[in-house]
């Protein structure tokens, strides 16, 4: 059977992404074959499609770090044809062919059952970005932060992680401070649930080791000085959940907030997160996310447009979430 896929190739002719027609012999090893409905463009997909960072480490490889679809065949005990599934990470789209394709083959242990109440399109509107936002929120809640603990700062507010984090936190009753470089989107961020919108320039330059205590917690998808300033402005015994590097991979901070204010920095990894945590995160997303608000965050593109979208997300041109209909 043939299928369309966004293939990354690297050889003497260079690094390139193209839409190709493949057949089942091109599918990688795995015990479950999935008919993909939707995939997405996450920041990491942008890095993979453009080749700006060495995300793809095996060639040729189908891009796409996540997908949602229906099991077509399975020799794994947990899955049977017709099951609706979602996949995030595990090296898919990096070392194992991924979700920007009409068909995918993976290990059954990597799959999560789509929670009741979520369509495959909604699952990819959430995508790895939204699932990671949930992991961040769960880390802050697990730390003991409650709505009356204080504000929660969300950086990269118009991005995928940031926008889903705002929707989740506001529905859970937290007061959200949204940091963005796109102040023209302030009204949209408020409609999503932000109580206040601040200019990311306030946080993106070198700051003091300790700043005024402004927030109890942070969901940070930006890294670099922004993460350092998020830590410096955290209230006594507050917490920061760090998951991203949109500004940079560096962490030019000080130990002062840790040793003088007892703050905690949680590292959030979605790729190798244990299955039980994933299942919990997806169940929470089905329950705690306002799906009408999620709809407002989504742009949908066909597979052929995914290559250009990969550059757009790195250029900060995508607001919210970009869903890819791999069958369009
Ligand atoms: P998006 O591109 O959708 O969002 C990133 C946002 O960061 C942008 O929309 C922008 O928000 C802000 N931003 C971009 N450039 C800068 C800059 N130079 N300085 C400050 N802010 C900036 O990406 P995603 O939401 O998909 O991913 C966000 C980050 O999280 C990425 O680094 C990604 O790799 C990481 N990530 C990590 C995961 C993990 O497992 N740890 C999983 C998923 C994502 P605005 O316009 O509002 O300022």
Features:
328 residues; Quinone Oxidoreductase, Chain A, domain 1; six-stranded parallel beta sheet; 16 strands; binds NADPH dihydro-nicotinamide-adenine-dinucleotide phosphate
Structural write-up:
28% of the residues lie in helices and 29% in strands. The protein is of the alpha/beta class. It has two domains: 2-114 and 297-325, Medium-chain alcohol dehydrogenases, catalytic domain (Quinone Oxidoreductase, Chain A, domain 1), CATH 3.90.180.10; 128-267, NAD(P)-binding Rossmann-like Domain (Rossmann fold, 3-Layer(aba) Sandwich), CATH 3.40.50. Strands 3, 5, 6, 7, 8, 15 and 16 form a seven-stranded mixed sheet that branches. The chain has a six-stranded parallel sheet with strand order 11-10-9-12-13-14, with helices on both faces. The chain has a three-stranded antiparallel sheet with strand order 2-1-4. Strand 13, helix 6 (256-260) and strand 14 form a beta-alpha-beta unit. The longest helix has 23 residues, at 120-142. The two termini are 18 Å apart. Bound molecules: NADPH dihydro-nicotinamide-adenine-dinucleotide phosphate. Residues 42-44, 128-129, 132, 156-162, 180-182, 200, 204, 221-222, 226, 243-247, 268-271, 313, 316, 318 line the site of NADPH dihydro-nicotinamide-adenine-dinucleotide phosphate. Residues 42-44, 128-129, 132, 156-162, 180-182, 200, 204, 221-222, 226, 243-247, 268-271, 313, 316, 318 line the site of NADPH dihydro-nicotinamide-adenine-dinucleotide phosphate (NDP).
What topology does this entry show?
Elements: E1 2-11, E2 14-23, E3 32-41, H1 43-50, E4 61-62, E5 66-74, E6 84-88, E7 103-106, E8 112-113, H2 120-142, E9 152-154, H3 160-171, E10 176-180, H4 186-192, E11 194-199, E12 215-220, H5 224-232, E13 234-242, H6 256-260, E14 264-267, H7 275-288, H8 291-296, E15 298-302, H9 306-314, E16 321-325
Parallel strand pairs: 9-10, 9-12, 10-11, 12-13, 13-14, 15-16
Antiparallel strand pairs: 1-2, 1-4, 3-5, 3-7, 3-16, 5-6, 6-8
Helix pairs in contact: 1-9, 2-3, 2-7
The structure holds NADPH dihydro-nicotinamide-adenine-dinucleotide phosphate.
NADPH dihydro-nicotinamide-adenine-dinucleotide phosphate (NDP) binds next to helix 1, helix 2 and helix 3.
């Amino acid at each position: 059977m043939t299928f369309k896929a966004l293939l990354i190739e690297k050889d003497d002719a260079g690094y390139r992404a193209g839409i190709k027609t493949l057949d089942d012999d091109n599918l990688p090893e795995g015990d479950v074959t999935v008919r993909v409905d939707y995939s997405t463009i996450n920041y990491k997909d942008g890095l993979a499609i453009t080749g700006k960072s060495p995300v793809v480490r095996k060639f040729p490889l189908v891009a796409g770090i996540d997908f949602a679809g229906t099991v077509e065949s399975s020799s794994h005990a947990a899955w049977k044809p017709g099951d609706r599934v979602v996949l995030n990470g595990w090296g898919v789209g990096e070392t194992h062919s991924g979700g920007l394709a009409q068909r995918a083959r993976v290990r059954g242990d990597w799959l999560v059952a789509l929670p009741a109440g979520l369509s495959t399109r909604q699952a990819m509107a959430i995508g790895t970005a939204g699932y990671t936002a949930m992991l961040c929120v769960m880390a802050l809640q697990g730390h003991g932060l409650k709505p009356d603990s204080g504000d929660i700062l969300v950086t990269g507010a118009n991005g995928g992680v940031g926008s889903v984090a705002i929707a989740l936190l506001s529905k859970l009753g937290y007061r959200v401070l949204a940091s963005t470089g796109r102040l023209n989107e302030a009204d949209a961020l408020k409609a999503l649930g932000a109580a206040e919108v601040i200019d990311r320039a306030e946080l993106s330059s070198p700051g003091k080791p300790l700043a005024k205590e402004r927030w109890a917690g942070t969901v940070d998808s930006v890294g670099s000085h922004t993460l350092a300033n998020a830590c410096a402005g955290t209230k006594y015994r507050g917490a920061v959940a760090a998951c991203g590097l949109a500004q940079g991979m560096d962490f030019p901070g000080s130990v002062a907030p840790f040793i003088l204010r007892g703050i905690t920095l949680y590292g959030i990894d979605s790729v190798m997160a244990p299955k039980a945590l994933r299942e919990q995160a997806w169940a929470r997303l089905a329950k705690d996310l306002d799906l009408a608000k999620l709809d407002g965050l989504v742009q949908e593109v066909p597979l052929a447009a995914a290559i250009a979208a990969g550059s757009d997300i790195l250029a900060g041109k995508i607001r919210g979430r970009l869903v890819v209909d791999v069958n369009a």
